[in-house]
């Protein structure tokens, strides 16, 4: 038995060897296929935004593939992919050239630069707030020994309030004055009442109290010094002062 | 004006401020004359025509002992001494034209018969001498009762100080005060008292002070703004006043010890016319911090603020009754033209004192019984412009007009002896400080440079 196994195994082995030897065709190796041609470079370039005003800047972005040598006119050699901030003063076309083994590729991006609008002409010289104030805001006059606003003075106060409402940026001081005939101390008290009366009338007409300061001058700072009723009336007043 | 009821007779206890017979009776006669008179003008009648005479005092110039350097100082002494006695309201000075040719400088030189008989007819004689000894000015003075030849001496005094004009003035003031004290019933004289006032002579209204006779005028504040209404404290150490600052009118305090202003709270609004209580513990003043000028009280440091008046004002010019320290008078426009009111120091019992016209600037007499004030009895547009000083008896509201010479007269202030009133007047053409006796006599001008207003007499 063992001898039969031995012959059998040998036969199998010999057969395998013959088959494998025989399967192997002795074919000459095929010639290598020609290398594929080098891929062409690709290039793209964009600028965002593509319209700016002079003085503004934009972002220039480009991508290339298969390129070994990338350059942008006006900038020079650049990386294959990249971006850059540009601030051209005039409309510009960015011209990218990508060169590689496979050739070269170009791409452009155009940015339009609009000029800034012309500066507005200087405003014509206008009347200052303070001048306007002294032209428009009239003092309020009082009867002898009185601190009430009455008669024609009511419309004066209304007109003053209207002006102050139109010019919210103006703040004022109201001075209370008296004529020379009364006593020093009593007149300071009366002047205080006169200034307060004007302030109250203005706040009732909508002027914010925080815009108004009051001070009494009694008979200490008169506007005129004659001893007659005309001058005395001049001095009995609530006087408006523009607060700078 | 109610003239029907004669005023009650003033009793004369020794503690009464008018206890000296001459002056008290003179003032009684004043009110009696008024109540009996139907004349429209309120003139105060006084002097010899009423049959009441002041003590006749002769005051020959003090003599120089040898040194000619003494002469100018002696003139200052003599002028000041004469002026102090002449204005005291206590004595009547015998005119120098009646004096004998021989004038005494020492007691042995007094010839009694030359003085106690006509022409001088003096009851008292004040005499003495001055010398510069060892670099010091020494003044000796005597007060003699020339009708009592046996023991005439009432006073014998000696004063010694540096030989300066200021020292000569002070010696004269001191000796005059001694005489006035003796002859005036025990009330201290005012020859060394001070008057605080407002002057604009530097270009700004500042607080000034001067001797009561107008000499030695000196500037206290240098604020360069408008400073008004000086009121000295009872002890003389501080002067409260009102000044225009960056935050408006504020009460400010000047310290005489430090010779500068010291801090005092700002209250907001317009703060005016401070007034001291008699013990110096409180200040009353006008403030519009509540929206309308009202009378407030605080302590002397400005704390503990309390509002006393609530009617629509303006309420200004408070003054304390220094005798009781429990009442305050003030001026108020609550009914129209300003009138004088009194109230308790807590604001209760507000009473109107004046019946018509324009009345301001009340000042309470030291004896508590009178108010001095500035008043125009008939006021209104078109009326004549003068305003006069009046006295009002508080109990009866009867009043007397003291000034009659035109001008605007204002801000009366009583002397500590209750015999004099200092006030402001424009009668000379511009505002100046004037002084008079409380019966309206002996009116004299104290200031002459610039405009001078709002005088306030010291408390002693």
In words, what does this structure look like?
The complex is a heterodimer of chains A (244) and B (460). By secondary structure, chain A is of the alpha+beta class. In chain A, the strands form 3 sheets. In chain A, strands 2-8-7-4-5 form a 5-stranded mixed sheet, with no helix packed on it. Chain A has a 4-stranded mixed sheet with strand order 9-12-10-11. The mean pLDDT of chain A is 86. Chain B starts with 20 loop residues before the first helix and ends with a strand. In chain B, strands 1, 2, 3, 4, 5 and 6 form a 6-stranded mixed sheet that branches. Chain B has 2 domains: 129 residues, 3-Layer(aba) Sandwich (Rossmann fold), CATH 3.40.50; 264 residues, TolB, C-terminal domain (Neuraminidase). At the A-B interface, helix 4 of A face strand 18 and strand 22 of B.
What secondary-structure arrangement, pairings included, does this model have?
The complex is a heterodimer of chains A (244) and B (460).
Chain A: H1 2-23, E1 42-48, E2 51-53, E3 58-65, E4 69-72, E5 76-78, E6 82-86, E7 92-100, E8 103-114, H2 129-136, E9 140-141, H3 152-166, E10 171-177, H4 184-204, E11 212-218, H5 229-235, E12 237-243
Parallel strand pairs in A: 2-8, 10-11
Antiparallel strand pairs in A: 1-3, 3-6, 4-5, 4-7, 7-8, 9-12, 10-12
Helix pairs in contact in A: 3-4
Chain B: H1 21-36, E1 55-58, E2 63-64, H2 70-86, E3 91-93, H3 112-116, E4 124-133, E5 136-145, E6 153-161, H4 165-183, E7 194-199, E8 206-211, E9 218-219, E10 227-232, E11 238-245, E12 248-255, E13 260-262, E14 271-276, E15 282-287, E16 294-299, E17 306-307, E18 315-320, E19 327-332, E20 339-344, E21 351-352, E22 358-364, E23 370-376, E24 388-393, E25 399-401, E26 409-414, E27 420-425, E28 432-437, E29 444-445, E30 452-457
Parallel strand pairs in B: 1-3, 1-4, 2-4
Antiparallel strand pairs in B: 4-5, 5-6, 7-8, 7-30, 8-9, 10-11, 11-12, 12-13, 14-15, 15-16, 16-17, 18-19, 19-20, 20-21, 22-23, 23-24, 24-25, 26-27, 27-28, 28-29
């Amino acid at each position: 038995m063992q001898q039969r196994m031995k012959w059998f195994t040998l036969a199998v082995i010999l057969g395998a060897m013959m088959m494998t030897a025989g399967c192997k065709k002795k074919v000459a190796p095929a010639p290598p296929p020609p290398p594929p041609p080098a891929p062409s470079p690709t290039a793209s370039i964009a600028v965002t935004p593509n319209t700016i005003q002079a003085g503004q800047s934009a972002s220039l972005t480009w991508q290339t593939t298969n390129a070994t040598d990338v350059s942008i006119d006006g900038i020079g050699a650049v990386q294959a992919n990249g971006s850059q901030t540009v601030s051209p003063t005039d409309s510009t076309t960015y011209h990218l050239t990508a060169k590689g083994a496979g050739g070269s590729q170009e791409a452009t991006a155009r940015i339009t630069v609009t000029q800034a609008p012309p500066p507005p002409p200087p405003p014509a010289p206008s009347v200052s707030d303070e001048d306007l104030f002294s032209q428009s805001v009239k003092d309020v006059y009082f009867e002898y020994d009185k601190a009430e606003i009455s008669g024609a003075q009511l419309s004066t106060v209304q007109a003053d309030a209207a002006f102050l409402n139109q010019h919210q940026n103006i703040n004022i001081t109201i001075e209370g004055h008296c004529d020379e005939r009364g006593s020093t101390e009593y007149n300071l008290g009366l002047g205080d009442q006169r200034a307060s009366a004007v302030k109250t009338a203005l706040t009732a007409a909508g002027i914010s109290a925080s815009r108004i300061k009051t001070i009494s001058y009694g008979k200490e700072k008169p506007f005129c010094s004659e001893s007659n009723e005309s001058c005395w009336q001049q001095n009995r007043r609530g006087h408006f002062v523009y607060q700078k | 004006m109610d003239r029907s009821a004669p005023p009650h007779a003033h009793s004369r206890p020794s503690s009464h401020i008018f206890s000296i017979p001459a002056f008290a009776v003179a003032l009684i006669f004043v009110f009696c004359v008024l109540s009996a008179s139907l004349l429209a003008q309120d003139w105060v009648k006084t002097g010899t025509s009423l049959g009441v005479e002041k003590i006749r005092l002769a005051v020959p110039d003090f003599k120089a002992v040898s040194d000619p350097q003494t002469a100018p100082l002696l003139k200052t002494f003599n002028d000041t001494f004469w002026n102090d006695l002449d204005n005291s309201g206590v004595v009547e000075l015998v005119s120098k034209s009646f004096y004998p040719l021989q004038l005494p400088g020492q007691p042995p030189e007094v010839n009694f018969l030359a003085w106690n008989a006509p022409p001088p007819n003096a009851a008292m004689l004040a005499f003495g001498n001055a010398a510069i000894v060892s670099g010091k000015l020494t003044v000796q003075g005597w007060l003699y009762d020339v009708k009592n030849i046996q023991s005439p001496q009432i006073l014998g005094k000696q004063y010694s100080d540096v030989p300066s004009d200021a020292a000569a003035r002070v010696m004269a003031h001191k000796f005059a005060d001694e005489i006035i004290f003796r002859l005036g019933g025990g009330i201290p004289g005012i020859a060394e008292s001070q008057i605080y006032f407002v002057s604009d002579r530097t270009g700004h209204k500042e607080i000034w002070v001067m001797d009561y006779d107008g000499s030695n005028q000196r500037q206290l504040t240098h604020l360069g703004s408008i400073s008004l209404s000086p009121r000295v404290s009872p002890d003389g150490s501080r002067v409260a006043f009102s000044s225009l600052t960056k935050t408006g009118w504020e009460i400010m305090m000047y310290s005489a010890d430090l010779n500068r202003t010291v801090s005092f709270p700002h209250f907001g609004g317009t703060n005016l016319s401070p007034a001291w209580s008699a013990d110096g513990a409180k200040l009353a003043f006008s403030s519009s911090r509540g929206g309308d000028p009202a009378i407030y009280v605080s302590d002397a440091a400005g704390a503990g603020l309390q509002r006393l008046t609530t009617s629509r004002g303006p309420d200004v010019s408070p003054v304390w009754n220094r005798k009781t320290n429990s009442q305050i008078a003030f001026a108020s426009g609550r009914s129209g033209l300003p009138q004088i009111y009194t109230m308790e120091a807590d604001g209760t019992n507000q009473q109107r004192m004046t019946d018509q016209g324009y009345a301001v600037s009340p000042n309470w007499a030291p004896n508590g019984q009178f108010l001095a004030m500035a008043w125009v009895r008939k006021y209104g547009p078109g009326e004549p412009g003068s305003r006069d000083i009046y006295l009002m008896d508080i109990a009866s509201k009867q009043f007397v007009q003291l000034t009659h010479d035109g001008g605007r007269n204002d801000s009366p202030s009583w002397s500590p002896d209750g015999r004099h009133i200092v006030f402001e007047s424009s009668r000379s053409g511009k505002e100046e400080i004037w002084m008079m006796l409380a019966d309206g006599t002996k009116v004299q001008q104290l200031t002459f440079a610039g405009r001078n207003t709002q005088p306030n007499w010291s408390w002693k």
